[in-house]
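Before the break, one more example. Copy the sequence into your notebook; we will annotate it together after we see the structure.
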Amino acid sequence: MRPLLPVAALLLLLFSACRPDQVEHLSNTKELAKESANWEVKRIMPNDLLRATAWAGDSLTGRAERELRQVLADKLAAGGVAAALPFCRPERLPRTDSLAKAMQATLTRVSNRPRNPLSQATLSAAELNPADTARQVARPSQEVFTYQRPLVLNDQLCLRCHGEVGKDITAADYALIRQQYPQDQATGYQQGQAMGVWRVSLARNGAAELWTQKTRKIMKPRKPLF
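Here is what the structure looks like once it is written out:
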């Protein structure tokens, strides 16, 4: 029979090595748990995709309006209406176009009084309700989502090209506008007036990707207080 003393000594050594006061606990277990949950495969429901479409439309049209204001301010200051007129196409501005491609979306403007009726989609007067400020989100097909909201003249800079002739638009500037756009109808507006609508068409994959990004709350490392 083997002596029990060496075995007892070994067990005592193991127990002493695992005392609770000597176990190192992880300090960020909550963060690790949330991070693990973020990467779980989650089913995306149709209503989730509609919400993502609303986010995409708000983000894209908001970006277009901000970029347009900045570009118009720079161009008007540098060369007046002559310099600004070619850039009044927010859907084609670089940062807006880049965001649209990343979202797999297409941004367009539609008006009942377009600047160039030959190349710009038109909107009937009956379809333009100035009192309607609500977003419209829909899914016309399995793979396509749409977004629409009013396009409102909120910036006084826009009156330089779209305001009242003789009051906001000088005779020289109006002659320039008519020279480039002989069938122009996009003047006579006042600040706060609806000029048309923004429309966004979004691919299903783009909506799903945006929903995933918006709902995945990745924990950021906390900065030290001192």
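The chain has one domain: 46-215. Residues 46-84 form the longest helix (39 residues). Try to locate both features in your own notes.
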